[in-house]
Design goal:
Layout lengths: L3 H6 L1 H8 L8 H37 L5 H32 L20 E6 L12 H8 L2 E2 H7 L6 E2 L2 H20 L3 E2 L5 E3 H7 L17 E3 L4 H5 L6 E3 L5 E10 L18 E11 L4 H18 L4 E5 L11 E9 L4 E10 L3 H6 L2 E3 L5 E3 L1 E9 H11 L7 E2 L13 E2 L3
């Protein structure tokens, strides 16, 4: 979110810097709303000054025992004018704020220019892509043949884009969750939290999902609550409207939650399998950093997400998203993409972003510096990892010619010693 005064004074520069990223912002309407707010602010300030001077005059008349009724009547009328002007100003501010909340964050200077994923820049690769002596199967064919994935019954009880995991499949999902949480909370020094899976409108607004992306969310019918699309929302909002002392920063949390997404803009995309579901599990990493340290923190957090794939020996690459492919709130994003043999390519399994002060300003998240002044923290988050997509990568990369799937060594302690999933 942008400070309205900063937005008014720098509107053309912000519009230019956003480029195509701000193509759906009604800039001319916003300019009019900001000027209306400025004009009304000047008017209210003038009326308040007039009221102050008039009140002093009334007080003087009373001290001197002079008639004050007419002057008091004028002050009452002036007070009514001020009330009406303040109401108009409040309405103008709400209109301007609603428009400001819909403007995406400014990209960091290191973000490559571009409009779509073809302009993203590959940073590095890790691991060796498996070479099969047979035609690799898709994860849904493998899972259904092994009896661990059931899409038909999921559709019966819920609908499309849901899945039922059974037996070793359900245990593998649970093993991945526990493995990721243990890794991040012990080796990587994140504090584990278990937040609510429903949040209020203020929480969604604080992290940037509202007001612009309400159609992508699952909302309760009778209450103004939303099912979370990611643990980023409740975990970031843990510090909403708080001022934390400098010696507590950086603050790092990890959380496992189910995530719920309508996938409103993905009609026809990844209709089969686990890649794009309405409900899926994810382990999230969230960090709060001093502004001067936040890009170092982004590298650290991204490295922690990469460690999960390294421990599982899954090949991947890291790409820097171009300005046109970044999410609404991000100033810079790295996508981690895991290799999927059935697609003969890399698919996103984690997005790690620095939002700078964009979310903190919306949510009122500050820290008290050593000099006693307060400043907005920078917020960061990344998937560490998307559990369903990690399961997909394991099924496809560890598949064998006989249709069985080998369990990565790092997960075997969480699988009760099971080394291979075979057809039961």
């Amino acid at each position: 979110m942008y400070d309205l005064r900063v937005l008014r004074d720098n509107l053309d520069a912000i519009r230019s810097q956003l480029g195509p990223r701000g193509s759906d912002v009604a800039w001319d309407d916003l300019r009019a709303r900001l000027e209306e707010r400025r004009t009304l602010t000047i008017s209210v300030d003038g009326l308040r000054h007039e009221l102050k001077k008039g009140s002093e005059h009334v007080a003087k008349l009373k001290r001197e025992k002079q008639p004050a009724d007419a002057a008091m009547a004028q002050m009452k009328a002036l007070g009514d004018r001020i009330q009406a002007a303040e109401d108009s100003l409040r309405t103008a501010e709400e209109r301007a704020m609603d428009m400001a909340l819909r403007i995406p964050n400014l990209p960091h200077s290191s973000v490559p220019a571009g409009k779509d994923p073809t302009d993203n820049q590959e940073m590095r690769k890790w691991g060796t892509v498996p070479a099969f002596t047979f035609a690799p199967k898709t994860h849904w064919d493998l899972g259904e043949a092994l009896g661990i994935l059931d899409f038909e019954r999921a559709a019966k009880i819920a609908g499309a884009r849901f899945a039922v995991l059974t037996g070793p499949g359900a245990r593998l999902e649970r093993a991945l969750i526990n493995f990721m949480l243990d890794l991040h909370s012990t080796r990587h020094d994140y504090q584990e939290v278990l937040p609510p899976f429903m949040v209020n409108r203020a929480a969604m607004t604080g992290t940037g999902q509202l007001p612009k992306f309400e159609e992508d969310l699952f909302k309760l019918r009778d209450d103004d609550y939303f099912l979370i699309p990611t643990a980023e929302v409740p975990v970031t909002n843990l510090l909403r409207d708080e001022i934390v002392p400098d010696d507590r920063v950086p603050i790092r949390y990890t959380a496992h939650t189910p995530c719920f997404r309508r996938e409103a803009g993905s009609y026809g995309k990844d209709t089969r399998g686990l890649i794009r579901q309405h409900q899926f599990n994810k382990v999230e990493l969230v960090a709060f950093s001093r502004p001067e340290d936040s890009y170092q923190e982004l590298e650290r957090l991204t490295g922690h997400a990469e460690t999960v794939l390294q421990e599982l020996a899954l090949p991947y690459r890291v790409v820097t998203l171009c300005a046109g492919d970044m999410g609404f709130s991000a100033a810079k994003t790295y996508d981690i993409e895991v290799w999927l043999p059935s697609q003969n390519g890399f698919r996103e399994i984690s997005s790690c972003s620095n939002f700078e002060a964009f979310q903190a300003r919306r949510a009122g998240i500050r820290y008290r510096r050593k000099d006693g002044k307060t400043d907005f923290l920078h917020t960061l988050n990344g998937s560490g990892l998307a559990v369903g997509r990690t399961l997909v990568a394991i099924l496809e990369n560890y598949q064998q010619a006989d249709g069985s799937v080998t369990i990565p060594h790092a997960l075997r302690p969480y699988m009760g010693g099971i080394e291979r999933i075979t057809k039961n």
